[in-house]
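Morning run. Coffee first, then this:
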Amino acid sequence: MDRSSADAFVYAKASGMLAKSFVGSRASKIFAVSSIQELWVLLFQEEVPALPEVMLPEKLEQKAEATFIQDYILLLRNYSEPSPILVDLLRYYDYENLKDIIASLCKGQNSSDSPYLADIKEFSMLNYSGWPNLHTITQGSPLSWCNKIPSFEQQQEYDFKLDLQYLRSEWEGINKLPSALKNTVSNLYKNEMILNNMIWAIRLRLYYGMSKEQVIPLLFTIQDCKSETNIKQDPLAGPVFRILDWDLNSYETWAKWKYSYLLNPTTENTLWQIDPRWIQQSAKVYFNKKALKLFHRQPFTPAVLLTWFKIKQYELDCIRTATEGLRLNIPM
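And here it is:
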């Protein structure tokens, strides 16, 4: 079908999918169940597979992820030439798969021990049939530099480089969106990337005791930055640089932060310390609400699938949280 017909069909189909999803007010249903089995039936409307109890949570999470990916692919296939950013979003799973492959190969696993990999079908950049040969898997792709099994010491460096490459690809794709989307969906994605970079920096300072000087080389940047001046001017790292010497134990300092509404609250007669886990969870809720509002705002544009993807990723996060809570018998 032509582009306008595809836009109309995708908007209608995606709207119908969201109506049946556990998002918005329906998200509470995920956390109202009392067992993994009950959650399985709620999500998939089918009998629970005959698996050992210990294996069921992992299987549920894998099926939920596979269902999300498959639904997105079904929507994407309506376009003969989908917008590049819509394909790049899906390729997030190529990057995550490659990190899992590297981790498995670092442990010395052979061909019979291939890890679970998310299947993104014809949109993948990688040749997974090449397992366990890393060179064959990445050959001819933008990730072809990743062709040798790293040492355990190098594995974290590889993961960082893969995360950085994906972020830069996503940022570039967002910048190529039509100008009509610049102040809506583009800002949604960019603000989330900047905030995640900030949370990363806070974690490094809080959990690893790193100084400002130690954190700077570990920030995610849009361009390779060789000086502090470059860092300050970088659109992804610049906003982070300005908070690197803020006191992590001073609520008054962080109250002037652009994202202060995401902070963990203060309690009278209790020493306050910034909590990146609280900020991360608050941010997920905040950006999900923004995506839900934006979904219907620009119906026949790439904004539909850009927001749909983010909304459904949040649903997947909720499913994983609920599954983990049930597995550990933690009150929801």
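The chain has a mean pLDDT of 94. Good start to the day.
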